[in-house]
Amino acid sequence: MTMRDISGNRGRGLMKTIDWTLVVSYLILVLVGWTNIYASVHSSEPASIFDFSCRSGKQFVWIMTSIVIAAVILFLINPRIYEGLSLPIYLVTIGLLVAVIFLGIEVKGSRSWFGFGPIRFQPAEISKISTSLMLATVMSQLGYKISKFRDFVITALIILVPMAIIVLQSETGSALVYVGFIFMLYREGLSGWLIFMVGMAILLFILTLTASPYTAILVLTGIASLCICLYSGRFKKWLFFGIPAIAFFALLPEGMEMLAETVAKPDASGAASTADAWTAFVSAINPLYILLVAIFIATPFAILQAFRERNRFTYLALISTVAGIALVFSADFIFNKVLQDHQRKRIEVLLGMKEDPAGVGYNVNQSMIAIGSGGLTGKGYLNGTQTTYGFVPEQSTDFIFCTIGEEWGFVGSTAVILLYVFMIWRIIRSAEHSRESFTRIYGYCVACCIFMHLFINIGMTIGLMPVIGIPLPFISYGGSSLWAFTAMLFIFIALDRNERKYF
User: Fold this and answer.
1) Which of 392, 332, 331, 402 shows the shortest CA–CA distance to 372?
2) What is the 3-state secondary structure (H, E, C) of 388-452?
3) What is the pLDDT of residues 293-308, one digit of tens each?
4) Which percentage of the chain shows pLDDT scores above 70?
5) Could you give the dihedral angle defined by the CA atoms of residues 15, 20, 23 and 25, in that order, rounded to the nearest 10 degrees?
6) What span, in angstroms and rounded, lies between the C-alpha atoms of 485 and 26?
7) In the chain, how many domains are there?
8) pLDDT-derived band at 486, boundaries 50, 70, 90
9) Distance of alpha carbon 193 from alpha carbon 129, whole angstroms
10) Residue whose C-alpha is closest to residue 128's, from 478, 491, 493, 418
11) pLDDT tens digits, residue range 488-498?
12) 246 and 385: one domain?
């Protein structure tokens, strides 16, 4: 008997319900990756593209096994089991993440890999799938609202637990991908204020390192006061009072220096001024303390105004300001004590705090040279000089995009990026059209993961992001990454196909 849905429509055939557009996009990206892996190693590993002793041949094996994984997910596994198995899969993944810290092998300072002979397996890649499934399961439950404190805490823990363990593995890049889930949370009702706070945290951290804590707190205070005034309809007051106050504190450090120099000048006889004590006093005053005192004095008035108007936004802004100040004072500890030495050096080079073109900055410099030398249409396949002579380390893995840029030029690089954008758009579109919240949430998780990998990897190769070692989805060399992204994508295709059968 033919299955029917509640509207009486007959179930459609299996092959007609698969999103072949996504499948073809996946195959094109995999093909692009395979050919460029060969281009990046053909000079150092002179062999056929199918030679299993070189990386291109090994990648072909990974591609074939990935296609098998995709076929199994599409045709042999019932998509409805993922919701029921999400918790066991998540717990097993957490166990693997912890185990690899003690039992894994160390690769480039990171203990995040299991070694089984010639095969290496990274649990962090699978954790993105398990976390996505777990989020979809929890957030699709009847009565779930992210605005509820309990639901929000549970959701945050699902994301933060694997993220924290991955940080302990010194895999900062993989941990950073989890930040992308915030876009999915925003789609499901999370306040945009949290996204704004994440952006502010990054800005404050950078300002503290590159400028000073004083500058960071001043910027924080200015933005917080502007947000409060905009929300309460007092923008004109902020223009008349806020801007002059910000300007005063911006000029305060320089003004105090000038005052100290003026007071310290000798008198007409050439003897030292009698105001030496005042000079020492003025020099000893830290402008930061004056700014903090001003914030402390202004805060009670803001709280009183918020209480009178029952304005919860002001309370939130004040709490965020306090958290921001705490972050500023802890930035030095995080930078020097939490981050590893190679991570600090990469951030220093990225932010222009240090120059190290022959050391930490070598990879990025050579990558930008390779991409820039490609011009509009590139030097041609297998004709890239930076690629041929191996100037860029890790050119088949983390820096494979520079191979595309050099040999395919601006046109080819743009085409690859647009293909990624199309894939992400297609996933989001299908997710939005889904009738089941589980499929929608999981789809957004997949889109977020692909986007974060794309943004970080390409940003890294063109010098906009620190070098943190993260693959380009479907393109970079490596079995575990390709398998994980294949499984993640085709689970969504299977979930989407299951709905298309009857709707």
Assistant:
1) 402
2) HCCCCCCCCCCCHHHHHHHHHHHHHHHHHHHHHHHHHHHHHHHHHCCCCHHHHHHHHHHHHHHHH
3) 888 888 888 888 878 8
4) 86
5) 170
6) 10
7) 2
8) very high
9) 27
10) 491
11) 999 999 999 98
12) no
3-state secondary structure of 190: coil
Instruction: Note whether 152 and 189 are same-domain residues.
Output: yes
Q: Are residues 238 and 315 in the same domain?
A: yes
Q: Pairing state of beta strands 110-116 and 105-107?
A: antiparallel
Residue 67, token pair as written in the block: 């296609």
Query: For residue 167, what are the CA distances in angstroms to 163, 222, 412?
Result: 6, 33, 35
Range of the domain at 474: 23-199+348-500
CB 112, CB 122: distance < 8 Å = yes
Strand (E) or helix (H) holding 39: helix 20-41
Residue 480 lies in a domain: yes
**DSSP H or E segment with residue 106:** strand 105-107
Q: What is the value of pTM for the model shown?
A: 0.81
Evaluate whether 450 touches 423 at the Cβ level (below 8 Å). yes
Q: Give the position of tokens 């030292």.
A: 272
Residues whose CB falls within 8 Å of the CB of residue 307, separated by 6 or more in sequence, listed in order: none
**Distance, C-alpha 302 to centroid of its chain:** 34
* Residue 16 falls inside a structural domain: no
**DSSP string for residues in 240-294:** IIIHHHHHHHHHHHHHHHHHHHHHTS--TTSSPPTTHHHHHHHHH--HHHHHHHH
Among candidate residues 339, 365, 399, the one where a domain is terminated: 339
Give yes or no: residues 241 and 387 share one domain. no
The pair of structure tokens assigned to 388 is 């041929």
Residue in the block written with tokens 């993961």: 449
Q: Quick one: 408 and 273 in the same domain?
A: no
The answer, yes or no, to whether residue 28 has pLDDT greater than 80, is yes
Question: Domain boundary at 339, 370, 387, which?
Answer: 339
CA distance 315 to 321: 10
Cα-based torsion angle of the residue sequence 270, 274, 279, 280 in order, rounded to the nearest 10 degrees: 110
Residues 313 and 384 in one domain: no
Nearest partner of 350 among 456, 207, 464, judged by Cα: 464
* HSE value, Cβ hemisphere, 13 Å, CA-based, for 486: 27
For residue 63, is it within any domain? yes
57 and 146 inside one domain:
yes
Is 50 exceeded by the pLDDT of residue 5?
no
87: left (phi over 0), alpha (psi -120 to 50) or beta: alpha
State whether 335 and 318 are in the same domain. yes
